[in-house]
Amino acid sequence: MIIVPLGVASATPTTTRHLSSAAVWREGSIYLFDCGENTQMRMLQAGMKRSKIDCVFISHLDIDHYTGIIGLLSTLQLQRRERELKIVGPKGLKEFIEFNFKFAEVDITFPIEYLELEEEGFEHEVVVDEEEFYVEARPLEHTKFCLGYRFQEKDKPGKVDAEKAQKQGISEDWQYKELKAGNDVTLDDGTVVKSREIVGHPRPGDSFAYVTDTVYCRNAVKLGKNTNVLYHEATFGSSLKDKAEETGHSTASDAARVANESKTKLLVITHFSARYTNPYVLLREARDEFHPTWIATELRPIMTDPSHERGIIQPRVSIKEFNNKKKGNKNKSGGKKKSKGKKKKKYRKRKKASSSKNKGSKSKSSKRSSKSSSSSSKNRKKKKKDHKKKKSNDDQDRQPKHITPRTPFDDFDRF
Ligand SMILES: [Zn+2]
C-alpha cells in the first residue's frame, strides 16, 4: 500500500501547499481521501491515473475538502469512464454534486454509488467491504459533522509448509486450498491432516487511518489503533492551542497524543496552517512526544511496506532528466557565443567565491575588475539582441521545480 499526499494545506492554499487530499494506492486501484480543488492536477503530477480511482471518501463539507470532486468527475466523464465510482461522505454531498452537473447541463453517464452518512446517532459504519479489505468511518469532533476513515486490509492467510504437507500425504490443489482456509483435510485412508500444523500464523493486513479536521477525540484513537500509518492533521503548534480548540483542529502535540494512545507505527502530520511557512516546527513538537513522526510532503509517496517501493510509482519527469533537458535547450537556443556569455556571467560569482577561499588573495582583485567590466558591457548588448529569441525558449524551460515529483527511492519516508 502506498500513500501519496496530494495536498497538505489547511483552509487556504499557499505557493507550495495545496488543499487537502491523499491518495492510497493498492493493487492497481486508487482510493482518494478528500478532494480539495487541486486534487486531479496533483494526481497527474504524481503520475497517478485518475481512471484508476475506485472510491472517494470525503471527510466533511468544508470547502477546502470536497470542491475538487466536480472537476474530477467532469474529467472522468470526458475520459468516457464506464466503471462505477463510489463516493462516501456526509449527507448533502450527492445534492451538491448533482446540482453542479445540472447547472452545467452535463450528464454523468457512468454509475456513481453514493453512501451518505448522517450526523444523528452516527457512531461507526463499515462503508466499504471487499474480499481483501474494508474501510470504516467514525465521527470526529469538528465545528461540523466530520468523518475519519480507516482503510484496513484483512489478515492474509499464513504461509503453507509445502514440504510438511507432502510428507503427510497432501498432493492436490483443493486440499491446499482447504488447509489455507483453516479447514482440516481427511485423506482417503482416513488420516486427518490438521490445518494448524501445516499453515503458519495469519499475517496482519496493512492499515491506514485518515483523521483530519478534529480536536483530540477517542474516535481518532480508535481509527488509528495499531495502524501502520496514521495520517493526522496538525494544523497548529501548541502555542496556538486555544485557536486550535476554537476552530476544531488539532495541534501537533494532539496528533502525537493520538499516535501514542493508538500505538500506530508511523504518524504522518498534515493540514498545516498557512502561517507555518516551515512545518518542521510542528514536526519537532510532535516528535518530542512521538518519535516515529514525519511530515506529509506533497507527491512524496509513503510506503507501508518498503519492499513494495521499486517500480510502482513512476514520476512523470525525473529530476535528472529535467535538469539535462534544461541544459540542452539552452545551448541550442541562443547561438554559441551568446549562450556562453550568459553562462559565464552566471557562474563567475561562484568560481570567485571558491577560488578566493582556496587560493587566498593573490591576483583576485585584478582578475575581478578586468573580467567583470569587459564581459558586462558585452553582455548588455547581447542581451538586448537576443532577448526576443530566447524568451520563447526560456518560457518552455521555466517550469517550477517544486512540481517535479520526488522519486519513490528516497529514504525519507521509509520505516
Ligand atoms: Zn480543513
Would you mind describing this structure in some detail?
α8 crosses α10 (252-262), α12 (319-333) packs across α14 and α13 (336-359) packs across α14 (364-397). With 415 residues, the chain is an alpha/beta fold. The strands form three sheets. The protein has a seven-stranded mixed sheet. It has a seven-stranded mixed sheet with strand order 7-8-9-12-13-14-15, covered by helices on one side. β12 (207-211), α8 and β13 form a beta-alpha-beta unit. The protein has three domains: 2-155 and 204-308, Metallo-beta-lactamase, Chain A (4-Layer Sandwich); 162-198, no CATH class; 321-350 and 392-405, no CATH class. The protein has 14 helices and 16 strands. Helix content is 39%, strand content 19%. Residues 313-319, 330-344, 352-372 and 399-415 have low confidence and may be disordered. The protein has helices at residues 39-46, 63-66, 68-78, 93-103, 162-167, 173-180, 195-198, 218-224, 241-247, 252-262, 280-289, 319-333, 336-359, 364-397; strands spanning 2-7, 21-26, 29-33, 53-57, 85-90, 112-117, 125-129, 133-139, 147-153, 185-186, 192-193, 207-211, 229-233, 266-270, 293-295, 302-303. Bound molecules: zinc ion. Residues 10-11, 20, 62, 64-65, 213, 271 line the site of zinc ion. Residues 10-11, 20, 62, 64-65, 213, 271 line the site of zinc ion (ZN).
Output the keywords.
16 strands; Metallo-beta-lactamase, Chain A; single chain; 7-stranded mixed sheet; 39% helix; disordered C terminus; 14 helices; 415 residues; alpha/beta; binds zinc ion; 19% strand
